[in-house]
């Protein structure tokens, strides 16, 4: 597959690059084999000697797909409800019941998970880190559905040998560890016969969080993660009631417990971490673990916002998570905007504290801008997930995970979806202001197509009038 047009990506935090009129070649296995300016001799040779390219018209560009670092797949069942409750009560009255219902009904699980994949893809999410349920077979349904849909999915079978719901718990630490081992083996076997580039699903060890896991279970999972080099995910330092519970029951912070259990590793993603202070964030950075920042669910279930700017300044790997259903919006566009809004509110608090003498001058703004948020949703998330080299950008050797965005129809001059341009659309180049406008107010009406590993997952066989030539299968 050959594509000619404008590309937008973030090479680093706040480093947004627009590659205008470039040629990109995608191999049959879905990797970027060539990238260069369209006027270069190499590009001209490719354009003249190869198959007809897909030509992106003016007002249309490619951007990497989004990475969602924290989503509870079974909770998609009741997305958008129950958010009036505190965390521990919400878990008992909504989360555990929904997860138990899917474990009891495989047909329902397949329906819920299939619809989830459709929602993810149409919203431009190409990679997702998933919490599942405690039953092995239900998580294998989730893995199968994600693999079939073509999404990069990291599937976590929940491990929990303590529960406030007697019917939704694993009977012992040893049983939970055996169940985790079984899921890991079955998940690997499910894709073992596929070529390496088509193995899009991986298992993740998933202790729900410290209140639902005994010390024996956490230590056992830590040993398993180390022995098999497995990914780990959980929740850490999320809510005031959860922190108090752990301190009261265990006499330590949950971060101390995870570290002692060898569950803070470069292959770990911890969600939330809103109650971590700068010294603790420094320890996270030293461990190599990543943090999934979930600004919307934090607004509902945490008593304070995540120290995003401090974490970034300290070198912590950070990406964004929707946290369905603690967050109600599956669209990563909303997640990016919320991350910026929360950071701006934190900066406002800092400014007022300095002005009122409640705080001395410090090292600068706590705000995060839209370009940084776009990095977190793409390259930052890919780095946190340890995706293949170059993932989250357009670079030779990187997997082609991309979404095609249309701002206006060049043939009619009409803006698309919620976007309005009043200074004419006969401009020659895509501008930073145009990309920012899409970031701020664009929606799925602006999304023409989605690819993961070079395979188109979503979008019509669009004609040139819509900004893109028909796309042939690339896998």
UniProtKB/TrEMBL annotation:
Keyword flag DNA-binding: no
GO MF, one annotated term: hydrolase activity
Key words of the record: Hydrolase, Metal-binding, Zinc
Domain Amidohydrolase-related: residue ranges: 61-432
Cofactor(s) needed for function: Zn(2+)
One Pfam family here: Amidohydro_1
Record keyword Zinc present: yes
Name of the protein described by the UniProt record: Metallo-dependent hydrolase
Biological source species: Rhodofomes roseus
């Amino acid at each position: 597959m050959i594509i000619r047009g404008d590309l937008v990506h973030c090479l680093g935090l706040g480093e947004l690059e627009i590659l205008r009129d470039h040629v990109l070649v995608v191999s049959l296995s879905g990797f970027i084999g060539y990238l260069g300016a369209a006027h270069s001799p190499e590009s001209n040779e490719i354009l003249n000697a190869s198959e007809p390219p897909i030509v992106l018209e003016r007002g249309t560009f490619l951007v990497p797909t989004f990475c969602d670092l924290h989503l509870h797949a079974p909770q998609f069942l009741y997305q958008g409800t129950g958010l009036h409750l505190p965390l521990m009560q919400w878990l008992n009255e909504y989360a555990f019941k929904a997860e138990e219902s899917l474990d009891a009904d495989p047909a329902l699980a397949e329906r819920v998970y299939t619809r989830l994949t459709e929602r993810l893809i149409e919203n431009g999410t190409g990679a997702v880190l998933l919490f599942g349920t405690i039953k092995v077979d239900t998580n294998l349904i989730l893995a199968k559905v994600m693999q079939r849909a073509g999404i990069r999915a990291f599937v976590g079978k929940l491990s929990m040998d303590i529960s406030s719901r007697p019917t939704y718990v694993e009977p012992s630490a040893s049983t939970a560890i055996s169940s985790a081992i079984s899921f890991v083996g079955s998940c690997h076997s499910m894709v073992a016969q596929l070529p390496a580039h088509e193995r899009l699903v991986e298992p993740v060890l998933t202790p729900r969080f410290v209140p639902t896991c005994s010390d024996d279970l956490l230590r056992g999972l830590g040993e398993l993660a180390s022995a098999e080099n497995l990914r780990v995910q959980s929740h850490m330092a999320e809510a005031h009631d959860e922190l108090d519970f752990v301190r009261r029951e265990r006499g330590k912070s949950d971060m101390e417990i995870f570290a002692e259990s060898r569950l803070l590793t470069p292959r770990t993603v911890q969600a939330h971490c809103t109650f971590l202070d700068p010294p603790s964030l420094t320890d996270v950075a030293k461990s190599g673990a990543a943090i999934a920042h979930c600004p919307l669910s934090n607004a509902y279930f945490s008593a304070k916002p995540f120290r995003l700017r401090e974490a970034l300044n300290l070198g912590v790997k950070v990406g964004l998570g929707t946290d369905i259903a603690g967050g109600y919006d599956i669209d990563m566009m909303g997640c990016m905007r919320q991350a910026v809004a929360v950071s701006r509110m934190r900066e406002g608090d800092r400014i007022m504290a300095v002005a009122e003498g409640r705080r001395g001058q410090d090292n600068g703004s706590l705000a995060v801008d839209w370009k940084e948020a776009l990095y977190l949703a793409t390259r930052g998330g890919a780095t946190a997930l340890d995706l293949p080299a170059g993932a989250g950008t357009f670079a030779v050797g990187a997997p082609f995970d991309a979404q095609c965005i249309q701002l206006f129809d060049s043939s009619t001059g009409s803006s698309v979806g919620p976007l309005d341009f009043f200074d004419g659309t006969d401009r020659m180049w895509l501008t930073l202001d145009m990309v920012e406008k899409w970031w701020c107010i664009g929606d799925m009406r602006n999304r023409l197509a989605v690819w993961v590993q070079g395979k188109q997952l979503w979008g019509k066989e669009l004609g040139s009038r819509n900004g893109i030539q028909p796309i042939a299968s690339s896998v």
